[in-house]
Every structure is written in structure tokens, then in C-alpha cells.
Specification:
The chain is mainly alpha-helical. It folds into two domains: 204 residues, no CATH class; 196 residues, no CATH class.
Length: 479
């Protein structure tokens, strides 16, 4: 049986952070290839199919990923019982969701290509049911999670580069993306069986149903987040052209990449925050360390990214996607707001305030639905971007006003100081291409401008009173 000795936060950051850094690079390559080869229409079909399937996947997950992470971090002796019950219920949900999906597709009224893509992504229902990365997250064993994420990204990138060669290869691209998730989740399942024994599947009993009701608190919150993240894309797919969805899709991909690091930090901190939830002072200090780490990392990604939008779009997706620039600008701003929401939200989950978390994100999701129903028919993809930004601002305001676990004054101070440090850095990154003819190729402008911008930001952080060395030492001590 595998050792359950936890890794330190810094070693976890090394494993999972390194894996996600490489995963980001590989996913950028795969996404760029798909956008260039498939074109706006087929890229839009893929984006719509992914967003549409997210609702079915969240039902199969049922909030168990977050529930298992928190419960196993708090008391790992219950792990086997929790996993057996979760898998049994999720497999039943996967079968039921698959049957419902077939019925929905028959009345959806989308193109044959869209329906085919949705059905292929439907294989992910089984992958979601057997996914056990949350077990290793709860045990603070991030190496396994890192290996899975790296493997998935490597397979995706290799498959897309080798087999996707023309716009007619949409089915091949979707099959690679869907099959990879199923395969890597199966690898984690096999590793769990090797480490802890084969899960015992059964008809759910009373105890299993009780645990399911507890996980439903997470499910409802995640459903609201899924609505916030995907309703506008599904609405665009139903009301606008596939090319419009494709243009919005590249902006949404950049948004997703921009919040990878905040999500990584959340994944690392959640089990640790959960394990000290009964210690108010330690929990509050750890929550501030968590939020500070997110802000320091999120600010340069978003602001320097805003400074290089035309170059990023041209390199990653091609000049035909430059029309998405205004939408990307709004979505990157949205990424910063979402990063703050991640910073406020995770400590609520860690200390057991799931109901508070749910009502906050539900209010934002409801506002987002109303805004997008009004704005998408009027403004198209810009309406979708603005509606999503406004609903995230509503969520942020509610997090800040409703008894946050993170000290609000200290949080605002960190944000202001980071923005002061990044403003000159972003200006330099933006202006470098016009200052030197050597930086005219867009890829060189991104690499040089981004590097100089980040280094300038790091140097200026010291002047505004944020010591990265001190931050790293606190992360190292936090186990």
C-alpha cells in the first residue's frame, strides 16, 4: 500500500505547478493547432459541444471531487468507504445521464457535426464517474495528480499535431480530447486499486445516500459556477453562427488559461485549509497567505496579457481571429475578477460554509443568465463577455460583503500594491514591439515583452513592500 505521508505545500507546488506549467504550454499548442486547422466554424462547434456537455458532466460528478478532497484531508481513515459509495453512485448517474443525453440531442436542433461532437464528448461521462484525482489531492499526494495532468496534455497535443490536418478532422480532434480524459482517469483508477485495493461497487445504501446528500451542497455550487462559465457559450451556439462561437471560443480559451494558476493554488490549499478549519486564527492566517499568493500570480498574467492581446491572438490562433480582440480584453479582466472569487470562495468551502458559498454563486449565476439573455441577442459575443464579467463582479461584491474568511483590508492592500507594480511592467511589454524593429514578429514580441514585463513586475514588487522570498518561505513552512 502506498504511503499516505503528505507532501509540503512547496513540494506540491513544485510537482503540480510544474506539471500544469507544461500542461499549459502543451494545451496552448494543441488549441493553436485546432484553431488554425479547423477554422472558426469547426472551432466554434468544438467550443459549443464542450460547454453543452459540461452540464451533464457536473451531474455525474455530483460535487464528490470537492467533497472527497475535504473529507479525506480531514479524516483519511474513511477514504475507502467514501470512495466505494461515490463510485457506485456516480456510475449510476453516468448511465442515466447518457440516456438523457441521447434524448436531448434528438430535439436540440443543432447541425449533424455538433451532435456528433456532443456524442463523442459523452464518453467523458464514464471518465468523470471513475475519476479519483480528488483522493490523492485530499491525501496531499500531488505527484499522482501532476502525472495525470501532464500525461493528458501530452497525449492531447501529440494527437492533435499528428492527426488533425484539415477542417474535416473535427471528429478526430474531438475523439482525441474526449478519449484522453477517459484514458487518464482510468489510469488514476488503476493506480488507486494498486495503492489501496479495488473499489467495491454496490447498490447505494443508506450511508452512501447520506454522503451523497452532503456532496450535493458542493454540487449545487458547482452547478451555479457551470452556469456562469457555460450558459453564454451555449446561448451563442443556439442563437448565433458557429463562426461567432469560434471567435468567442478563442477568448474563452485564453480566459481559462489565465485562471489556471489561481485554480492550481486553490487545489493545493483546499485540503490544508480544511485540515485546520477548527483553528480560527491559523485558518485566517492561512487564508490570507492563500489569497496573497493568488493575487501576486494573477495580476501579471492578466495585465501583461492585456498588453499583448493582438500578438497573442495572431500567434496562437491566426490573423483571422484578431476580430476577437475586444472580447479577449473583457474576458481577461474577467479572469482577474474570477481569480479574486477563487481566493474568497475556497476558504468558505474549507471551513464548512458551503451554503453561504452556494447562495453567493447562485445569485451571480442568476444575474448572468438574465444579462446574457438580454445582451447576447443585442450585442452577440461582446454581450456574452460583458454579461459574464458583470455577474462575476456581483459574486465578488457578495463575497466581500458577506463575512469573508479572508481579511478584506489586507486583501485590498495586496491588490493595490500588485497593480502599482504591474502597471509600468505592462506598459513596457506593450511598447517594446513599437520601440524596436527587432521585435516585430509577434512571437518574439510575446516572448521578449512578456519576459521583460514579468521581470520588471518582480523587481517593482520589492518597492511596494511585497517580498517574494518571504512569501516563498511561508509557503515552505505551510504543510
Amino acid at each position: 500500500m502506498s504511503s499516505t505521508r503528505p507532501e509540503t505545500l512547496l513540494s506540491s507546488l513544485f510537482y503540480l505547478g510544474g506539471a500544469r506549467a507544461m500542461a499549459i504550454a502543451m494545451n496552448l499548442v494543441a488549441t493553436s493547432r485546432m484553431a488554425h486547422v479547423l477554422g472558426a466554424d469547426n472551432f466554434g462547434i468544438n467550443t459549443f459541444a464542450v460547454s453543452f456537455m459540461s452540464y451533464f458532466l457536473i451531474v455525474v460528478s455530483l460535487g464528490y471531487d470537492q467533497f472527497l478532497t475535504r473529507e479525506i484531508a480531514y479524516n483519511s481513515t474513511r477514504m475507502r468507504t467514501l470512495v466505494d459509495g461515490a463510485l457506485s453512485i456516480r456510475l449510476i448517474l453516468a448511465l442515466a445521464s447518457g440516456l438523457i443525453l441521447l434524448g436531448v440531442i434528438s430535439v436540440l436542433g443543432q447541425s449533424r457535426a455538433s451532435n456528433t461532437a456532443i456524442l463523442i464528448y459523452g464518453l467523458g461521462l464514464l471518465g468523470s464517474a471513475i475519476g479519483l484525482s480528488s483522493v490523492y489531492t485530499g491525501l496531499h499526494k500531488m505527484r499522482m495528480v501532476a502525472i495525470r495532468e501532464f500525461t493528458a496534455s501530452l497525449i492531447n497535443m501529440s494527437g492533435i499535431l499528428i492527426f488533425v490536418r484539415s477542417p474535416d478532422d473535427l471528429v478526430i480532434a474531438v475523439s482525441i480530447l474526449s478519449g484522453t480524459q477517459l484514458f487518464t482517469n482510468l489510469l488514476i483508477f488503476v493506480r488507486y486499486a494498486f495503492d489501496f485495493g479495488m473499489p467495491r461497487l454496490r447498490l447505494p445504501n443508506g450511508a452512501d445516500l447520506k454522503e451523497a446528500r452532503l456532496s450535493m451542497v458542493y454540487f449545487w455550487s458547482l452547478l451555479m459556477i457551470t452556469v456562469t462559465y457555460n450558459f453564454h457559450i451555449v446561448l451563442l451556439g443556439l442563437l448565433r453562427t458557429e463562426a461567432d462561437v469560434g471567435l468567442f471560443g478563442v477568448g474563452w480559451k485564453l480566459f481559462v488559461f489565465a485562471i489556471v494558476i489561481p485554480n492550481l493554488i486553490s487545489t493545493l490549499f483546499l485540503p490544508r485549509l480544511s485540515s485546520i478549519a477548527a483553528q480560527p486564527e491559523a485558518s485566517r492566517d492561512a487564508s490570507l497567505l492563500y489569497m496573497g499568493t493568488i493575487i501576486v500570480c494573477a495580476v501579471p498574467i492578466v495585465v501583461i496579457g492585456e498588453a499583448l492581446i493582438p500578438q497573442i491572438l495572431a500567434v496562437l490562433f491566426g490573423s483571422s481571429f484578431l476580430a476577437a480582440s475586444p472580447v479577449v480584453a473583457v474576458l481577461l479582466l474577467n479572469a482577474f475578477v474570477v481569480s479574486l472569487n477563487i481566493g474568497f470562495g475556497t476558504p468558505l468551502l474549507a471551513v464548512g460554509r458551503q451554503k453561504d458559498f452556494f447562495w453567493i454563486v447562485a445569485a451571480g449565476a442568476l444575474a448572468g443568465v438574465v444579462l446574457n439573455v438580454v445582451l447576447v441577442p443585442l450585442l452577440g459575443i461582446m454581450g456574452a463577455a460583458v454579461g459574464t464579467l458583470v455577474d462575476e463582479f456581483i459574486i465578488l461584491a457578495l463575497f466581500a460583503l458577506y463575512r469573508p474568511e479572508v481579511p478584506l483590508g489586507a486583501c485590498c492592500s495586496i491588490v493595490v500594491r500588485c497593480l502599482l507594480a504591474v502597471a509600468p511592467a505592462a506598459f513596457i511589454a506593450h511598447m517594446l514591439p513599437s520601440w524596436s524593429t527587432l521585435l516585430q514578429p509577434d512571437l518574439i514580441a510575446i516572448l521578449v515583452g512578456g519576459t521583460v514585463g514579468v521581470l520588471t513586475y518582480i523587481a517593482l514588487l520589492h518597492l511596494v513592500g511585497i517580498q517574494l522570498r518571504h512569501l516563498a518561505m511561508r509557503l515552505h513552512r505551510f504543510t
